[in-house]
Specification:
heterodimer, A: Histone, subunit A, two-stranded antiparallel sheet, flat, B: alpha+beta, Arc Repressor Mutant, subunit A, 3 domains, 16 helices, about 40% helix, elongated, binds zinc ion, transferase activity (chain B), Aspartyl/glutamyl-tRNA(Asn/Gln) amidotransferase subunit B (chain B)
Chain lengths: ~100, ~500
């Protein structure tokens, strides 16, 4: 069971505002997911070195050759708001 | 660049500085997609695709050239290149970060454990390099009253991060390190080094401690320093500020501070209450890299000569002064030009030719470049033309004075000096002593007053007489020969 503080911190990092009752609800759900994943802990991994990637691929790289980009109107088609061919978002306080 | 090096920092305290430098790489396409990086003068969001826009379900692919450039930099900074490297996701939320995470490198960067030597007050100081890794740049925010616009063109540009050890002991050293690093990046051709355009950026960690204390003081992170001068000024201010706080019995708070250029101060931006929680984890869309040893050696063999090596070589190979070697190597194209002059010269005495090439390049050619606001890559004057001019001087076909005029013309027309000499009908200098002596005799005879003045000790009368002789020879006599012959003549008259 993960505690309420952890749930709140995860929500904060994900920029989600949770009500007190939601902390309870999602806490339970997250705990259930973690318990489920916990089954993996039972696997015997002695003698297996840790890996960062599931595929056995390495060195998948491309040559440095530019290709055409997309038209701005296509890219911005799903934007909640736009102006001057840019995405428009709430005021961000300039750092400094 | 010249900056007053005076650092008025309290000598009871020691300043400790480490720098994190970010440099965009000069690849043609972005880090993980094929959008062009040539967006400097482009309209917003014209160099964007679903990958750099951070759309769900897209697949990033590593730009091999960016990996190569990072390895080149790492080698130039004496780093080791581990065989295995991988990318990680660094998660945080900010409007300029399209995916909600930045693809970066966390625990296994492309390289680590190097160093960079700087010269400070006649001493060599070795600054450790912790790591050089590869990541991607963010989008650009355009701040307006009440809202912010996001231009995604910059997002996904290859960005290299170079982290130093906390080895610098003064703001001046930090600036010197930064300048040296920039010089290397430009030399090896991986970056433009333009701080004013933000393609090269610098953050600093700085702390102070009572001299003699081993433990490091609490550090602050300084951001927003956009020039070498800002780096030095901001760190001087911050060191002073920290010392004041400690002197007054206060404590330094671990925080991020921004440099306000026009006020000359740093101010709190963000207080660090706990370690940043970026929830790093391996990037599942990018398989790891196995860096082949033979590839690294191939890259090493192609690496351009570094500025320090070149400086030493110019002094050894061409017997140039340290001063000249420094100036010639400051800007790589100038050094390249110098070497081309020497290379195309068919001369026995290569050192003498190198010396002459250096002198003419650093005085006359640089003067012409400045006057015409041109860079050495833009001028019509070829290294071959300069070599040709030096040949004409060596053969005494023209005088030094004439050479300057010919150079002016060659600079604007791009013609070879010998063609200009031909075209203008410049006659060879009068080196025949008999002819010169005859002219001197005539001049002396016509200028009795000047001769008398000379006899009465007015030595500047000689200059007037030389002028007359030069006029008679239409500038085709060598001034030093005229002078010695004239003095000899005058002394005879006096005797
Ligand atoms: Zn793209």
């Amino acid at each position: 069971m993960i505690d309420r503080e952890t749930v709140k911190n995860v929500a904060k990092l994900a920029r989600l505002g949770l009500g007190e009752d939601e902390v309870e609800t999602f806490g339970n759900q997250l705990s259930a997911i973690l318990d489920h994943i916990h089954i993996l802990q039972e696997a015997d991994v002695s003698g297996v070195s840790p890996t960062a990637h599931a595929s056995r691929l390495t060195n998948i790289m491309r040559a440095d050759v530019p290709q055409p980009s997309y038209a701005p109107e296509v890219l911005l088609a799903n934007a909640p708001d736009q102006d001057e061919n840019c995405l428009k978002v709430n005021a961000v306080l300039e750092e400094a | 660049m010249t900056t007053t090096a005076y650092t008025p920092i309290d000598t009871d305290y020691e300043v400790v500085i480490g720098l994190e430098v970010h440099s965009q790489l000069l690849t043609k396409s972005k880090m993980f997609c094929s959008c062009s990086t040539n967006y400097a003068n482009a309209a917003p969001n014209t160099h964007v695709c679903p990958v750099c826009m951070g759309m769900p379900g897209v697949l990033p692919v590593i730009n091999q050239e960016a990996v190569k450039y990072t390895i080149m930099t790492a080698l130039a900074l004496n780093c080791s290149i581990p065989e295995y490297s991988k990318f990680d996701r660094k998660s945080y939320h900010y409007p300029d970060l399209m995916k909600g995470y930045q693809i970066s490198q966390y625990d296994i960067p492309l390289s680590n454990d190097g160093y960079l030597n700087i010269q400070h007050e006649g001493q060599e100081r070795r600054i450790g390099i912790t790591r050089v890794h590869l990541e991607e740049d963010t989008a650009r925010s355009l701040h307006h009253q009440g809202y912010t616009l996001i231009d995604v063109n910059r997002a996904g540009t290859p960005l290299m991060e170079i982290v130093s050890e906390p080895d610098m002991r003064s703001p001046e050293e930090a600036r010197l390190y930064m300048q040296k690093l920039r010089e290397i990046l430009i030399y090896i051709g991986v970056a433009s080094g333009r701080m004013e355009e933000g393609s090269l950026r610098c953050d600093a960690n700085i702390s102070v401690r009572p001299r003699g204390q081993q433990a490091l003081g609490v550090k602050t992170e300084i951001k927003n320093m956009n020039s070498f001068r800002s780096v030095e000024r901001a760190l001087e201010y911050e060191a002073q500020r920290q010392i004041e706080v400690l002197r007054n019995g206060g404590k330094i708070r671990q925080e991020t501070r921004g440099w306000i250029e026009n006020k000359g101060i740093t101010v709190t931006q963000r207080v660090k209450e706990q370690a940043d929680d970026y929830r790093y984890f391996p990037e599942p869309d990018l398989p790891p890299l196995i860096i082949d040893h033979t590839w690294v050696e191939e890259i090493r063999s192609q690496l351009a000569e570094l500025p320090d090596t070149r400086r030493v070589r110019y002094q050894d190979e061409y017997a140039l002064s340290e001063q000249d070697a420094n100036v010639l190597t400051e800007d790589k194209p100038v050094g390249d030009y110098f070497e081309q002059i020497v290379a195309v010269s068919a001369v026995k005495d290569r050192k003498a030719r190198a010396k002459a090439a250096s002198n003419w390049l650093l005085s006359e050619v640089v003067r012409l470049l400045k006057a015409n606001s041109l860079s050495i890559q833009e001028t019509k004057l070829t290294p071959k033309a300069v070599a040709n001019l030096l040949d004409l001087l060596d053969k005494e076909r023209i005088t030094g004075k004439q050479a300057k005029d010919v150079l002016d013309e060659a600079f604007s027309s791009g013609e070879l000096p010998e063609a200009i000499v031909e075209k203008k009908g410049i006659k060879p200098p009068i080196s025949d002593q008999g002819t010169l002596e005859r002219i001197i005799e005539e001049v002396v005879a016509k200028n009795e007053k000047a001769v008398t003045d000379y006899k009465n000790g007015k030595t500047n009368a000689v200059q007037m007489l030389i002028g007359q002789v030069m006029k008679q020879t239409r500038g085709q006599a060598k001034a030093d020969i005229v002078q010695s012959l004239l003095r000899k003549k005058l002394d005879e008259l006096q005797g």
